[in-house]
Structures are given as C-alpha cells and as structure tokens.
Amino acid sequence: MSDDDHKKVMEALYWWGLPTLFRCPYEENPTECDIALVGVPHSSGNGTTEKDQHLGPRAVRDVSPIGRRVHGKYQLDPWAESKIFDLGDVPLPEANDNEASIQRITDYYTRLAQRGIPVVSIGGDHSVTGGIIQGLGCEGSKLTKGKKIALLHFDAHTDTFHNLDHWLGAKKSAAHWGSYLVQQGQVDGNLSSQIGIRGNLRTLDWTNTSDDLGYQLITKEQFDEIGIEETIRRFCNRIGDDPVYVTFDLDCLDPSIAPAVSNLEAGSNGFTIDQANSLLRGIRGLNIIGGDVVCLMPTKDNPNKITSMVAMSIMFELICLISDRQRNLR
User: Fold this and answer.
1) pTM for this structure?
2) Which is nearest to 70 in space by CA: 62, 60, 61, 82?
3) Are strands 119-123 and 288-294 parallel, antiparallel or unpaired?
C-alpha cells in the first residue's frame, strides 16, 4: 500500500484531524470555488422546545470525513472533478432573533449567487431555506439568471402555513418559508413539488395552502402507490430546464433511519434511504443551483451518530449531482 493510500485511510477516520465538511479545504473567500459547502447553525425559526438544530453543522462536520467517497453509480470523484470548499458557518450574531437571522442568511447567500457559486448547506431548522433562497434568487443572481426557482422539497410537512401569521412568535419561520418564497416571487410553485408529506393533519384542509400556491403534492402514501419512476417523472416534468433547488428535511425519512430530527412523524413509515437516494438521482443532469439538509437534532442522536451520518450521505448525493453536471458541461 502506498503512502497516498495510507493517507486516504487516515482521512476517512472522522475522529482524526481537523473537522471540515468532507475534509474539504476551509476557505472563507469563495472566489476559486466550484461548489460551496456552508453550515447554517440556526434554530430560532422552529419556535418549539426542540431548538438544538443549530448544532447540526458541527455534528456533520465531525462525522463527514468518513463520507469523502467516490460515487459508484455516476463513476465520479467529486473531490477531483470540482473545487469544493467548506466556507464555514453563516455568522448569526442575533441568533435568538429569527427575523434578523434570516436576513443575515439572505445577505450571505446573495454574495454566493452574485458570483454564480452553487452551494450545499447543512442546517439548522427549516426556516434557513427561506433565507438561503431569498439570497440565491436575488436580483443579479448568476445562478438563476432572472428565472424563478423550481423547488424540490422533501419533507413530512408542507411548511406553507400562511394561514397563521406567525409560528410561536417567528414570522419567517420553519412553517412559513414554503409560502413566502412563492408569494415574494423567488420560487415558482407551478414548477415545484413537495414529496413525502405524511401523517395525520391538524385540520382536513391543512394542505390547501400548498395547493393554492401551485405546488404539486406527492404524499408518502401516493408515492407508495405510484412508485419511484412515476414520482420522478411527475416532478421532472414540472422542473424542465429551470434552476432547481433541493431542500431535504430529514423527517421525510423513516424514524428508524433518522431518529434525531425535529418534529418526528412516528405514526407512518417515511422513506428508506435507498428510496430517498433514488429520488434525488432522478434529477441528475438538471440545472441544480444548490440544496440543503435540515432539522438534524444531534442531542437526540444515537451513540453511533446515525442521523448525522445520514445527513452527511444526503449532502454527498447533492454534491455529486452538482459536480456531475459540472463535469458534463466542461
């Protein structure tokens, strides 16, 4: 075994060395970056007692070196194909003020959008997606080029609760981002899909808010009926060539696979990891401008850190989707 092979073995030991996302170089300045990795340690947008989602980025950095792999299905080494940097965390000095923090997140991602850098993020509660997309869909974005974003939203919940004027005090909350991004014009609901919604609802018309905004809802129950290929066909037909952003709430997965998440839906089965990966791979080749993984609760995780590792694996899939497209465009 060569010294280089020994080094690769050592770099895959998550307990060794300095933790960055997937052992990528840490660089605050993204000038030479093909893909940016960013942590968003925010938990004031959920408004519940489960506020430890801000610990998610640190937890994934801790385990992610073991996920620095090549993608067998794509025959892709993303780390060699693309310049991928860990830019660190979004600075959130008003962390307990949700609205101020969402603006900080927006300002941060505007900088990346104006430079045309696709970004994969780890949260953080789901309110962070609102700030991220406000930034990526800004005026002058080199990622969207003036187009609205097609959202591919994996979740047990719709997060379109504009029937409420706040969620336990937070206005641009984890329960509202799916609404206001459409209402403000960054996201086109008619291009977008919400996948994996499950569980009993608070009222019989609780999903009407998503219908009103134009979203296509494919519940987990519907997915079980129509299967993976038909689900992919339905959401890809909507996206077309438009810029697509993927947001992945870990609670869409079955609690046996991802137990350490906020707002568990334990009364019905969620996706298996193989189902989730197959659905993500369905958008291979599309114009993916970024994605995020949210709602990790490290303080609830098993001792083996399985949920953090699952979050890492979803990030890896998102990174490879973007790197694969970059390879094919060169």
Assistant:
1) 0.94
2) 82
3) parallel
